[in-house]
Every structure is written in structure tokens, then in C-alpha cells.
Amino acid sequence: MDERDRLRRLAALDRRHLWHPFTPMDEWEREDPPLIVERAEGAWLIGVEGRRYLDGVSSLWVNLHGHRREEIDRAVRDQLGRVAHSTQLGMGHPAPIELAERLARIAPPGLTRVFYSDSGATAVEVALKMAFQYQIQRATARPEKRRFLALNLAYHGDTLGAVSAGGIDLFHQVFEPLLFSVLRAEAPYCLRCPRGASKPPCPVCSGEEAKAHILARAGELAAVIVEPMVQGAAGMIVQRPEFLRKIREACDAGDVLLIADEVATGFGRTGRMFACEHAGVAPDILCLAKGITGGYLPLAATLAAERIFDAFRGAPERDRTFFHGHSYTGNPLGCAAALASLDVFEKDRTLDALQPKIARLWRELGALRDLPHVAEARGLGFMAGIELVKEKAAKTPFDPALRMGRRVGLAARKRGLAIRPLGDVVVLMPPYCVTEDEIAWMVGVVRESIEEAAGTA
Ligand SMILES: Cc1ncc(COP(=O)(O)O)c(C=O)c1O
Q1: Model confidence over 29-78: pLDDT tens digits?
Q2: Ligand 1 pocket, mutate which of 263, 286, 292, 297 (most atoms under 8 A from CB)
Q3: pLDDT in tens, 269-310
């Protein structure tokens, strides 16, 4: 069977049996041919038909150092030669132990305890439950502090706790009857300022409004949960560092835990190891997933301050245990990949090597701002979002039925760039191993694809 026949066969089987996440399946079934990835090298994906595509969103924001990175491949193979999985319930394993020590060492100060799970959503679920139970069991019990405050347009994953904290109507509204109610603060979406300010700062993006809101409701709040510095799934909405600092101040003053969801921003994505570092803020609980394994395997970690852990100590019959866990919690293969990824950070001085590439990305993106349908190119580090609009001056969105973001994605695919938009925000989040030439080429492809999709070519 030649490569084209194989692609046709796989596509037919996919259409018959698969249900893809976040995918309108009728539209997917019409995609001809779909991209089916056979293998990958560095920043490039290779389809079963043999074509190469630059992995412009790092396989949905997870890949860091590139695909088939020798050291990570080897670490997983070596681990496989010992054991693929053994449970964390009632026993240990070297890889998760070593990784916990490494994570505690590189995390913002004070986060000494590591609780493993297997996806960003579960890392968040763990954080919410931990914060809730902490308030009940802490030395001076505060069981009335049982609510959460999250930002508008937040995205924390797709399990029900994470969806409750989420604030993107398109994804979350249908599940409303299943969710617990969460207090909300405005997101600093300056392009469409929720307070109508014509230029920043306003009380929203300065963090003053969120601070006042947290302080006013502190008596009932267990925790505030935020995606620090960048609200990714909302379309790369960037915060000013003082926004995060004000939230930290309010949490301190109000005796409220701060949960930082760095599932998307962690492990160098914003140019620092963790996004909280841009604001000099340390959360009480930190959620990590996606890039933790360098994009190899599903693994997540929720890091907590020692005083939170202490509230769960006590004789077993006192029922202070944290009753949460998953079959594959702390999977050794994932932990081995994560340790190897952290070694690569040290060996390659990845964060230093990334800085000129970040500068190049933003120089190239600067040139897109003149396009008639680009309202804004925004982001931080290697997280970029290009918001498309029908009318630039009035910031009028395209009719959603036009699927403009998706059209741009398909036009880019034809040119050898694999990207996935968020609505009409074109997202670029390449692996850190891309070269400056590849960055320039990628942004050039995006320009052509926007022009083609919007019919201005
Ligand atoms: C900030 C944030 N939290 C949580 C998640 C959910 O992660 P996962 O898809 O691994 O469950 C995501 C995914 O995009 C995310 O961006």
C-alpha cells in the first residue's frame, strides 16, 4: 500500500471511529485529507504521506525542546527497561521522588510538596480540592472559606471543577447546571476593555479592581485561581505584572490561598521558567502539566506550600487524608521524561538560548500589525496570539460562521505550517528549538494565510 492509500485508509477509519476533542466533527469529516502525523523530528511533524509541517503550536502547547530529542527518548527507553508503571498509593518510585525534589528546587519559593496527577485539568482539580480541605483542617479552621474566585475568560481544563472555575461561555455554559458557582473578577482584555477605557491602565488591568473584589469577599474565599501573566485559551490575553502582584497582595491581606495555573505558561513558555517570576510573585499552590515532560507523556503536578500539607497531617482515624488520586499518578515514564527535560534546560541553557528567538518572533509579528484584518498581535515570550477582525477601526469581529481562524489554519497547512487557532485568534507557540529562520518563515506563512483567508491577497 503506498503512502496515499495508507492516508486514505486511516482517514476513513478515523471518520468511522474517532471522536476528536474540541472538534466540530461534521467539519472534521469534510477535511480532505486530514493531517495524520506519522513521526516527527525537532520542530517538524511528518504526515503519513511524507509531508513536513512546522509544529507551530508545539502539539497543543506541550512540546519544548523538539520532538525525538535524544536525551528524552533515551530516558524514557531506559525507564521502560526497568518498569513502565508502579503505583504511588502506598509505595514509591525513584523517578517521581527525584522529580519532586527538582520541581521544588526550581519552583517559586515556598512550594515544597508535590502531588502528581496526569493532565492540566487534574492538576487544577487537585488544587481546588486541596485548597477547600485546607480551610477546613488548618490549625484555626475556617470552614466558611469555601468559595473560589476566578477570572472572566479563564480556562483551567475540562473536568467539572476546572470547568466551574472556567469562564469561556462557548466551552463552559452548556455545563452550567453541573457546576459550582465561582466569584468572578474581570480579565484585563485591554483590546476590548471591560470598563471601556481607551488606553491602559484602568482599574481592571492595574489589578485594583480584582484586589478590591478579593478583599471584599475574603471571608468566604478559600482561594483565588489565575493563569498568571497570560490567559492562554482566552486568546493570549496578557496581564501587567502589577495585576498579579495586586492579586497576591489581596490574598495575603485576606488570608486567601493563591492558586497559579501554570499548565500553559510553565517551563519557559513565557521566557521565564514560570510566568509568576515576571511579577516576582509566589503562589501557595502551583499547577503544572503540558510542558512538564517536554511534551512526551501525560503527567501533571500540583505543588503546595508546606503549611498546606501540614493541615493534612494527623492520625489516620481523624480522616485528614487527602482522598484524591489516579491510577497513573506519578507515572515513572512521564517522570523520567520530565527529569530528562529539566536536564536539557540546564545543558542547553534553554532559557538563555530562547531570548533572541523571542525577540525575533516579536520583531516579525510587529510587521503583521499593519494588516487590515489584524486587530492585535499580543502575547509574552513564545506565546503569541494574533486577533483577526472584520473591521479594524471598530474592532468588529468576523461572523463566527466564517470560521476565519480555521481558514487561516488550513491555508497555513497547505504551506507546511501546522497551527490551531482559538476562534479568530491565530496562535503561534513553536517548540523552543525552532531557528530564527524558521520563525521568520512561520510568521511569513501566517501573513500569507491571513491574506488568503480574508481575501485580501
Ligand atoms: C491554563 C490551563 N490550565 C489547564 C489546562 C488543561 O490542561 P489539560 O488539557 O492537560 O487537561 C489548559 C489547557 O490548555 C490550560 O491552558
Answers
A1: 999 889 999 999 999 999 999 999 999 999 999 999 999 999 999 999 99
A2: 263
A3: 999 999 999 999 999 999 999 999 999 999 999 999 999 999
Residue with cell 519544548: 64
* Residue 11 located in a structural domain: no
How many structural domains is the chain composed of? Answer: 2
Residue with cell 484584518: 373
CB 446 within 8 A of CB 408: yes
Please report the beta strands in 344-432, taking only residues with DSSP state E, as ranges in sequence order: 374-380, 383-388, 417-418, 425-428
Question: What is the spatial distance between Cα 359 and Cα 364, in angstroms, rounded to a whole number?
Answer: 9
Is 29 inside a domain boundary?
A: no
Cell triple for residue 430? 513553536
CB-CB contact of 44 with 54 (8 Å): yes
Range of the structural domain that residue 78 is part of = 73-348
**Grid coordinates of 298:** 501525560
From residue 423, give the alpha-carbon distance in Å to each of 15, 150, 400, 431.
23, 22, 8, 22
CA of 19 to the centre of ligand 1 (A): 19
Q: Do 64 and 150 have their domain in common?
A: no
CATH assignment of the domain containing 434: 3.90.1150.10
| For ligand 1, mutation pick of 151, 156, 285 (most atoms within 8 Å of CB) | 156
Q: Which residues of the chain have pLDDT under 50?
A: none
Strand bridging mode 221-226 / 52-55: unpaired
CATH of the domain at 162: 3.40.640.10
- Cβ < 6 A, ligand 1 pocket: 119-121, 124, 155-157, 227, 232-233, 261, 263-264, 289-290
Task: Classify residue 337: in a domain, yes or no.
Answer: yes
